[in-house]
């Protein structure tokens, strides 16, 4: 695999400063300031309508900001010559001419960006579409169109790569392939930004997270730090004396719920203090286990105030085991 393009720079960053985009009075992106660094897969997360796609379009110069700036490798993307060599993006897999075949689509992109023709065959092979290259895109499945979009992003061998919901439509093998690809691209020193509205998708894909809600920055940190910020951490206690232990821990200020005949879930006290209290009261415990909140629960909690489109009767969190406490 060749390194980043001769024209590209390993170590290119995406820099957003007070980036704002309004549609009418409503901000889709609202004062976003953050840096996306090379060598990482950065998950770009937010509920539906949070402003992720708009931000990606602003980065690639497909829309102009209302105010603020965004640069790629220190420059506004539109000012970069032969753009696909500097940054590649999968933004809308459906935004391709259905009558064209995959080969011609990539060939046209290569021509306008001064990319050698041999790259077309290379990227088609890389994404597993070599056999379908001469078929009309209109006959491609959603997963095949996603693969073609990824091929287009890779075409210029750029140091910066953006992917908007790239896992949509991919089968489990495709999901695994994409995750491995993203990690490899980051390991090569590229900047990889991947959007999703599902934390579960990012949990195994990203090592850093940028989370937005209603266009505003909510978190910008390593995945592990994000999970640790959640208040969803609890302690599971198994005991043959649930009623007595429950009273004891509640008296010490903990919140205790009953899971089953022998199991309690405790929040507000660490495992060590729970063990001490039970020992002093001569109450036997069979298990004391700290349960760290799932990333999904942390995500729900942090974005709860900024969810724009939620079902009325049941909150979007329903059914997610991590959110139920
Ligand atoms: N061209 C447009 N005209 C008017 N409003 C727009 C336009 N594009 C986006 N918006 C609005 O901006 C907000 C952010 O939309 P955006 O598509 O960026 O969110 P998103 O985080 O990508 O959402 P999703 O996860 O649902 O794809 C939404 O309220 C959307 O309705």
Question: Could you explain how this protein is built, in words?
Answer:
It is a single chain. The protein is an alpha/beta fold. It has helices at residues 52-59, 102-112, 118-126, 142-154, 172-187, 199-203, 223-228, 242-251, 271-280, 295-303, and strands at 14-23, 26-36, 41-45, 67-72, 87-90, 160-164, 191-196, 208-213, 216-222, 234-238, 255-260, 263-267, 287-291. The radius of gyration is 24 Å and the shape is elongated. It has 2 domains: 14-222, Rossmann fold, CATH 3.40.50.300; 234-291, Alpha-Beta Plaits (2-Layer Sandwich), CATH 3.30.70. It is 30% helix and 25% strand. The strands form 3 sheets. The chain has a 6-stranded mixed sheet with strand order 5-6-7-3-8-9, sandwiched between helices. It is built from 10 helices and 13 strands. Helix 3 (118-126) crosses helix 4 (142-154). It binds adenosine-5'-triphosphate. Adenosine-5'-triphosphate (ATP) binds next to helix 1.
Task: Provide a compact summary of the structure.
InterPro entries: AAA+_ATPase, ABC_transporter-like_ATP-bd, ABC_transporter-like_CS, P-loop_NTPase. The protein has 325 residues and is α/β, with parallel strands linked by helices. The protein contains 10 helices and 13 strands.
| CATH class category of the largest domain | Alpha Beta
**CATH fold-type name of the largest domain:** Rossmann fold
* Silhouette: elongated
CATH architecture assignment of the largest domain: 3-Layer(aba) Sandwich
GO molecular function: ATP binding
Keywords: ATP-binding, Nucleotide-binding, Transport
Organism: Catenulispora yoronensis
Protein name: ATP-binding cassette domain-containing protein
